[in-house]
Amino acid sequence: MAHEETVYDALDHAHGGEGHWAFGTGFDEPLAGVDTTVPDGVDPADLGAYCLMLGDDALVLAQRLTQWVTAAPELEEEVAVANVALDLLGQARLLLARAGSVGVLGRSRSLATDSIPDEDALAYFRDPDEFRSTGLVEAENGDFGQTMVRLLVASTVRLAVFARLRESRDPVLAAIAAKGVNELAYHRDHAARWVLRLGDGTDESHRRAQAGVDAVWPLLADLFTATDVERRLTGAGVAVDPADVREEVHEVLTTVLGRATLRVPGWPADAAPRGRVGEHGPELTALLADLQGLARQHPAATW
Fold this sequence. Notes:
Blueprint: H1 7-13, H2 44-66, H3 75-101, H4 119-124, H5 135-138, H6 144-165, H7 171-199, H8 203-216, H9 228-235, H10 246-259, H11 282-297
Helix pairs in contact: 2-3, 2-9, 3-7, 6-7, 6-8, 6-10, 7-8
């Protein structure tokens, strides 16, 4: 009897049998075969810090999204949210691997080692003040409407940044961005569809979607303020100044909320990027306790 290919076989064969289930998974060395040489004129410490910013945002938001698994309003939506989280986790893995490849935090107190940290060490064995994520991704989920508004904002900002990073002088960042824009375009579209559905739905869904917008909007305050690291790397042709994506982000969010019959709150005044310099609220500490707990309890374990 002829073998009938299953969906699992198709997934396996699509990548030559390596069994890739998500972007970035299935590799012993995530950056194998990629030129990891730091571009001329670029401080490796700056490059590592910038990769942590982008990687930590993806890692933390992925963890927030996984909290909806078994709790989303539809079974299909649980799969969709989990897939978005997997995309972000794949991006985080590559970005943290890049940070490790340039020796970032090689003498971190929580890593307690002089060796070059890999992506797992950076994810599981840093303390909250060593993370460089923003308050936007760290905030608690709220209800489903608020989560979709947050995902809309986060994916819109990240997509605008990644689209520009495809021209980065760092070949690793450019490669990650080139793959990531396709994923982020889907994330933004998925969130936008939900915001439209909820905002222009019933009176109750409209009310809750508006409440989600009002809760998320203050978290935009520090998204467009560059750190010194970002300014230096932007000048070197490696990074993107977040101020450069402000107009695009404003236009996209204003358009989506308008079509969803939701009121656009006043744009918050620019604030210092606290999360980018390691200043976080208690919500990140609680989230990392869940994310890191098992690895820290069994630090020598392999999976």
